[in-house]
Write a structure and sequence with these properties.
Helices cover 89% and strands 0% of the residues. It has 101 residues and is an all-alpha fold. It has one domain (2-94).
Length: 101
Amino acid sequence: MANDKLKTVANKVEGLAEEAKGRVKDAAGGLTGDLGLQAEGKFEQFTGHAQQDFADLYEEGEGVVEKAVTFVRDKPLLSLGVVSVVGLLVGWLFFPRGKRS
């Protein structure tokens, strides 16, 4: 678990570095009039920002999974009931019974 948090923080830092590098390239391209360098900078900004957002989503997902595991441990019978009802509803929605003669 701690290893996952370190990876998430590392991904955020890499994303920040990529975004900063992109900002520098974008500014340098704007100053020199080099559209290719400016476009490369904007792309790096985008990828850095996307990497940070992905790391944030991963953290949120971990929190949801931890809550679900805790709920199942605390209330196993209620969890089984919820899963059973959801399974029946999904089965009913995807496999409706046809009219029989």
